Amino acid sequence: MGQIIHKFSDGSFLEYDQGRFDPWCVYFSEKDGTRNPPRDEEYFSELKEIAGRHGTDKVYADYVSVYDLTGKSVDDSVFSKIAGIAGTYGADSLEMEKILSILYMAMIAEEKKEFTRLGRRIKRLGIHKLLLEDSSVKDAANFMRGMNWRQIAKLCEDRGF
Fold first, then answer.
1. Where are the beta strands (DSSP E) in the chain?
2. Is 101 part of any domain?
3. Number of domains present in the structure of the chain
4. Which domain holds residue 111?
5. pLDDT classification of 28: cutoffs 50, 70, 90
6. 44 has which bridge partners?
7. Which of 6, 4, 12 has the alpha carbon at shortest distance from 32?
8. What string of DSSP letters covers 22-59?
9. Rounded to whole angstroms, how far apart are CA atoms 11 and 131?
10. Is the pTM of this model over 0.90?
11. Tell me: the pLDDT tens digits for 110-121?
12. pLDDT in tens, 121-155
């Protein structure tokens, strides 16, 4: 087990631990001990459902507010801001807090990758495709496979980030 980074009100938590490539793999653990790295398709699907109930513009803007706060290290105050944002989602608040927290930690992991040229922008591109371009969950999670960093960077720049 890695170091617990953030706990949720239902007893579940997030941590970083060794993954296939580096020690910055995000793991989500349920209260019962079930532990898995969140997969893009899983939380993209949940995010798309929440956007259907609360509006894609709101969900994307809230994601971008977390994106803008993301650096190369965990800042506990960002988790407080995420909880505040998630609190505006009513019955979906805990789920939204989990998704935004997973994305926050995943973006930090992208920023920490050695020799990264894309950093957190790679996550933003997937979220942009999912929400603003209305791609399917599968397409948004997988469309960059096989592209080099220059191609992905151009796609990000074309979208203004």
1. 3-7, 13-17, 25-29, 35-36
2. yes
3. 1
4. 39-158
5. very high
6. none
7. 12
8. -S-EEEEE-TTS-EEPPPHHHHHHHHHHHHHHH-HHHH
9. 29
10. yes
11. 999 888 899 999
12. 999 999 999 999 999 999 999 999 999 999 999 99
